[in-house]
Specification:
The complex is a heterodimer of chains A (about 525) and B (about 400). With about 525 residues, chain A is an all-alpha fold. Helix content of chain A is about 55%, strand content about 0%. In chain A, a hairpin with a 2-residue loop joins strand 3 and strand 4. Chain B has two domains: about 325 residues, Alkaline Phosphatase, subunit A, CATH 3.40.720; about 40 residues, no CATH class. Chain B is built from eleven helices and eleven strands. Chain B has an eight-stranded mixed β-sheet with strand order 7-6-8-1-9-10-5-11. Chain B has a three-stranded antiparallel β-sheet with strand order 2-4-3. Chain B is globular and about 65 Å long. The chains are: A mainly alpha (about 525), B alpha/beta (about 400). At the A-B interface, helix 12, helix 21, helix 22, helix 23 and helix 25 of A face helix 4, strand 7, helix 6, helix 7 and helix 9 of B.
Chain lengths: ~525, ~400
């Protein structure tokens, strides 16, 4: 039996820093702070178990699908509309990955790709199947991650990784980035969450998921070799969002000119080309891979680039579209250096004081309160600055901060946290993607599908609106109806320990049925908050 | 603002002068402000992601339009897949056939060059300003539609947001409800009252769950009409309309439509988005029945997109965009505000459509003349510090 204060601290460690407590966890957690610190590891946050393809393998499947789709459209569409339009345009307000489990075109909507001739039917079916396969891969990744959250004994490392994935959001609202959503978290985010922030930033921005999500992959320097030959040009989306959302923030002191300059520096950051585009791209890359590089083997290197082997995780730098020349961002001039130029700017942005300030606050908001104590933000910011953005130091500072251990649970769980903590409380794991996704859609947080590059919101106002609470209640009732727990009182004790209020304890004890008891527990303020 | 002589022949620049020179006026058809009762309804549709105004209200009469937009330019009215003619060299995007039909009935107005009062190109900052109604960044933590509810005075207006999260525009002290398709809980449920006992010290959860259940009850009572199928946007419009009709129907409704950030391959994306938007409005009209005559729908976005096409068949974050008003309560009329033209020397920072009208003017016009909100309250409480931006009055509703 633990001392009283110890039990409360164990409950806080598991529910506020972690993803919720399982039946025996609070009672057996001897050293809450030590348990948290042991999860801060140089190797990053563990990957969810299971065999999932890496980005390079995934890229091949994606390019094959894309080539098929482009071919199919050429055959069936007289208007010559560019391929991928439909993928770039998920339905209005529809949670876009809700077709994670869809097997046919939406009802009531004519499918423009449906072929009229019989010989085209087979090709159509093949395309549909390969799209479905890609989509189901994403669903399995998400299911695997949720199951990991429900079972891991390193809940803090998991929450910390999810925080950074959200901070560098890649959303499945776009099909191209949806395809790589799982790979992105495993390859770009998790390995770096206890390392240097600048390395996390470089890994995130260079991942195909991000390059496709924020349109960087297609951006072409107007003065580059490719830009001079055809009508293509800059896309400043990624450059702007790096500054506004990933690093210094909208008040970071940059101008439109800085955004454009950074966008120019980032040209060339791309992904392998596919299909007919690939052939042209291959020629271009072969001719353009000059610079300081050896001439020998250019062609084979270009071929390797097409196969996604040129960079880590499917990242490709294409000199032929890189805007030549020096760039000036935030008053500092960066000489031409190909790939290194954009990387240097990114690292400087990552190490900018405004980035430290902004992310210190974001961490405090995520873990502690919508309006966090000033002292906590200062503490995190100074740890960040002192350590030059060493996220292990920042994490340890959060763990050591007294403000993070106040008994008052200020944060409303997000729908995902609510679902994962429900599984933990009941000792269950999600089995199928579809019910999970349906519940998340209802509560407003569909899988991998943050509404914008800003990521999922963080405050009670965002998550505890009238309709969202009705949907949470629906979910709690469904769980309550299915729960096999023999003793709801023990479930309540296990999930909350000393955080369980007398009022909720009594309500659970007096409930007229087991389902009602579980529903009341899951909807209680102390379970909804953390 | 002076006019570019080059465009004066084709683009008929127009000020609709209200009581104050800056304004555009929206007095509502057959009714004065004093007669506005709680029957009046408004729906604010926020197009999130920066809707490209130059593709919504297409300025095909502007000689610079085609050159700036290249392959993204919508053809002139009368040409194949061309714009649907409005007035003065403007036309609606061809996907907006339903709205164009309303125009034919005098139930559509358009403001081709509006903006929020702050010049920012961040979606999030700009949406905040669009919704909180402030003069600058981060001046309000609640939304102007919520404050308008509170300013209704003797008229007891009710507010409703669509979707699982209450958007900023409707957040604030005045109680509102929210609804999204797909609920199964019944309001009178035993568990709901047990939960209220648990929530005595957590008013946020208590109040919001009660409101949610109340609205859910209304939706259930309305019958199978609220079983909205995925992607059935017209059905969504009709379902919302049902929550706006009858004695306890909502008066002020906020709805978000996402997906307008068309950095690449804009043509296809906009076609899909605008088709959906058109269907939502058609659904509202059908569902509202006679109440359509008391309704104004506002379609607004946080900012527009660059006048020039970018390198990826899309457009980047810009400034001025267009705003649409639809509804049976509107008076027939054309363009609201001024057309600054797309001439090189008229572009904002050399890249964006220059706004000629503050969006708050239009909001204020609708709130004053259609919803009957007191003008002084609009200047001080609903849109603090906005006195200089007169309501877009004279001839709107």
């Amino acid at each position: 039996m633990l001392a009283n204060g110890q039990n409360l601290n164990a409950a806080i460690a598991l529910t506020r820093f972690g993803l919720g407590a399982g039946p025996e966890e609070i009672a057996t957690l001897g050293d809450p702070r030590g348990w948290l610190e042991s999860q801060v590891r140089e190797t990053g946050a563990p990957n969810p178990p299971g065999a999932f393809p890496g980005s390079s393998e995934r890229m091949e499947a994606f390019l094959a699908y894309r080539a098929d789709a482009a071919q199919g459209r050429q055959n069936s569409r007289p208007d010559g509309a560019p391929a991928l339009n439909r993928e770039a345009a998920p339905g209005m307000n529809r949670p876009p990955t809700s077709d994670m489990t869809a097997t046919s075109p939406e009802p009531g909507r004519p499918d423009p790709d449906r072929p009229t001739s019989e010989e085209a039917q087979a090709a159509f079916d093949a395309r549909r199947d390969s799209r479905r396969e890609l989509v189901q891969g994403v669903a399995q990744e998400f299911l695997g991650r949720t199951a990991w959250g429900a079972t891991t004994d390193a809940g803090f490392a998991e929450r910390w990784a999810l925080f950074w994935a959200n901070s560098f959001t890649v959303s499945a609202t776009k099909f191209q980035s949806a395809v790589f959503a799982g790979q992105y978290e495993r390859e770009a985010v998790r390995p770096h969450v206890f390392g240097r922030f600048e390395d996390l930033a470089v890994a995130a921005e260079q991942h195909p998921a991000m390059l496709l999500y924020l349109d960087q992959a297609q951006s072409v320097g107007p003065g580059s070799q490719a830009g001079q030959r055809r009508s293509a040009g800059l896309n400043e989306n990624l450059a702007r969002e790096i500054m506004e959302l990933h690093t210094v923030g909208v008040d970071g002191g940059y101008t439109q000119g800085d955004v454009t300059e950074f966008a120019r520096a980032l040209t060339g950051w791309s992904v392998p080309l596919g299909g007919g585009q690939g052939q042209a791209g291959l020629q271009n890359t072969a001719m353009g891979a000059g610079g300081g590089r050896r001439g020998q083997g250019r062609y084979s290197r270009a071929q390797a680039a097409l196969r996604g082997e040129a960079g880590e995780n499917g990242f490709v730098f294409r000199p032929i579209v890189h805007e030549p020349g020096a760039r000036t961002v935030l008053g500092k001039t960066y000489s031409e250096g190909g790939l290194a130029q954009g990387e240097l700017i990114l690292r400087d942005l990552a190490n900018h004081p405004a980035t430290a300030r902004r992310l210190a606050r974001k961490i405090a908001v995520h873990f502690v309160a919508d309006d966090p104590p000033r002292a906590l933000v200062d503490r995190l910011e100074s740890a960040w600055t002192r350590s030059s953005g060493d996220l292990a130091v920042v994490a340890r500072t959060l763990i050591a901060a007294p403000e993070a251990w106040t008994p008052q649970a200020a944060k409303i769980k997000t729908p995902y946290e609510f679902i994962v903590s429900t599984h933990r409380a009941l000792g269950t794991t999600p089995q199928r993607p579809q019910p999970l996704q349906q519940a998340l859609i209802g509560m407003g947080q569909p899988a991998f599908s943050a509404p914008s590059p800003e990521g999922w919101p963080e405050t009670a106002d965002d998550w505890a609106g009238p309709d969202a609470l009705v949907k949470r209640l629906n979910y709690a009732k469904t769980v309550g109806d299915l729960a096999r727990a023999s003793d709801p009182n023990a479930v309540a004790e296990g999930a909350l320990g000393e955080r369980l209020s007398e009022r909720t304890r009594l309500a659970v004890a007096r409930a007229e049925s087991r389902p009602e008891a579980i529903t009341l527990l899951l909807m209680s303020p102390e379970f909804q908050r953390r | 603002m002076t006019q570019d002589p080059k465009t004066s022949l084709t683009m008929n620049r127009r000020f609709l002068l209200g009581a104050s020179a800056a304004g555009v006026s929206l007095a509502f058809a057959g009714r004065t402000a004093a007669q506005a009762t709680s029957a009046a309804k408004m729906v604010v549709i926020i197009a999130r992601g920066a809707m490209d105004g130059l593709s919504v209200t297409v300025p095909y009469g502007d000689p610079n339009y085609v050159a700036l937009r290249g392959p993204l330019a919508i053809a002139s009215a009368g040409q194949a897949n061309g714009a649907l003619a409005l007035n003065e060299g403007f036309g609606l995007h061809p996907a907006l056939a339903g709205l164009h039909a309303l125009h034919g009935q005098g139930q559509l107005r358009f403001a081709p060059a509006v903006a929020i009062p702050v010049r920012v190109r961040s979606h999030f900052d700009a949406q905040d300003v669009l919704e909180n109604g402030g003069e600058g960044l981060r001046q309000q933590t609640d939304g102007w539609l919520n404050r308008a509810l509170a300013a209704g005075g003797a008229r007891t207006y009710t507010g409703l947001s669509i979707g699982p999260q209450t958007p900023l525009i409707l957040r604030g002290e005045a109680p509102t409800s929210s609804w999204a398709p797909g609920g199964v809980v019944e309001g009178g449920d035993r568990i709901a009252s047990l939960l209220q006992d648990l929530y005595v010290e957590d008013p946020l959860l208590g109040v919001n769950l009660a409101r949610g259940l109340e609205t859910e009850g209304m939706a259930m009572a309305a019958g199978d009409g609220t079983q909205v199928r995925r992607n059935d946007v017209s059905g969504l419009g009709q379902a919302i309309a049902r929550l706006m009709t009858g004695p306890s129907g909502a008066n002020m409704v906020a709805l978000s439509v996402d997906g307008w950030d068309t950095h690449a391959r804009q043509l296809g994306q906009l076609q899909a988005r605008l088709t959906g938007l058109d269907q939502v409005v058609s659904g509202l009209r059908t569902g509202l029945g006679d109440d359509w005559d008391d309704t104004v729908v506002i379609i607004a976005t946080e900012f527009g997109r660059t006048a020039r096409i970018n390198g990826t068949q899309g457009t980047d974050h810009g400034t001025g965009s267009s705003l649409l008003l639809a509804g049976g309560a509107l008076k027939p009329g054309g363009m609201i505000g001024d057309w600054p033209t797309l001439a090189d020397n008229r572009l904002f920072e050399g890249r964006d459509l220059t706004p000629s009208l503050d969006v708050r003017s239009v909001f204020k016009g609708v709130l004053r003349d259609h919803m009957g909100i007191d003008a002084a309250a609009l200047d001080t409480r609903v849109f603090p510090g906005s006195g200089v931006e007169a309501p877009a009055t004279s001839g709107l509703v």
